[in-house]
Amino acid sequence: MDWNLLLTQFMNGLQLGLLLFLLASGLTLIFGIMDFINLSHGSFYMLGAYFCGSVVARGGSFLTGILVALVGAFIIGAIVEWVIARRLYREDHLDHVLVTFGLILIFDTLVHIIWGPAGMAIPLPDFLNGQITLGTLVLPIYRLVIILGGLLVAGILSIMVTRSRLGMLIRAGASNRTMVEALGVNIHRLFLVVFAIGAAMSAFAGMLIAPITEASIGMGNEIIIIAFVVVIVGGIGSIKGAFYAAIIIGLMDTLGRSYLDDLLKVFMSVHHAETAAPALSSMLVYILMAVVLAFRPQGLFPPAGAR
To answer: What is the pLDDT of residues 161-203, one digit of tens each?
Structure first.
């Protein structure tokens, strides 16, 4: 076995998992506390990439672009919650799906009008554009930055959720929203803050991946379904669950695409193994979700008090 290739694929899977966590962390809170299905969450992933790219294209630094994208996504998320989302909380989930799908079309059209139909490449600064050699393994510096950035955000969110007053309210809202409201907490303000933080986390993931894949219209629509799988597998409303489920799914997806054909060759011919492996590898995360729903429908790491 090529251990360098295995370690490289492991790093790729970890990178994907942490990007999924950044997306799913806000999504699981929005879903868990507000019982709101937000299909447009991936649009903030796209907006973060375009905001960051616009700053860099105008001569700003990449770090300035990150700050602008975070603030911009937070503000837009707050506006969307205030103007649209809060009017839908007591409506059926079908209404949530229809309205937020409409928001996807609106955001995609606005991006097309403002930035044009072509994608936007985001160049990295020189200090992020090199490589690090670890023994015989060569790793891009930026890949390590994505991994460390994802772990840092995971640590900050964990501290915020477990040790701050806002985190206490978030955990209480995820467990028993009615009781939190009855105790006099301004639930609308809490919802607005949670929604805006979720939008900022989604934008952060988008701006991190954009220098590798470039910013493009609809880029968030391609990953939001997997983010929902992460939320369901980890446990709706659980930051801890979103983190572990994202890592599991990221590694499963990456390693499955790389090594599943070798595993299948043990049981079937080379031709059939190479034919079945791509289709089966794309199904693995959904098979995992089906198994979790069948045997542990509350998720692997549900929040306290979840049924």
So the answer is: 778 887 777 767 666 667 777 777 777 888 888 899 999 999 9
- Residue 306 in any domain: the answer is no
By residue range, what is the domain housing residue 138?
Answer: 10-295
Q: Which two tokens stand for residue 228?
A: 């929902």
What ranges in the chain are assigned the alpha helix state H? 3-34, 41-57, 62-83, 93-115, 141-163, 165-175, 177-182, 187-213, 224-234, 239-264, 270-295
Start-to-end CA distance of the chain, whole Å, equals: 44
Note the pLDDT tens digit of each residue in 56-105: 988 878 889 999 999 999 999 999 999 998 888 888 888 999 999 999 99
pLDDT score for 3: 66
Residues in the chain: 307
Name the domain count of the chain.
Answer: 1
Domain assignment of residue 4, yes or no: no
What's the rounded Cα separation, in Å, for the pair 55 and 39?
Answer: 27
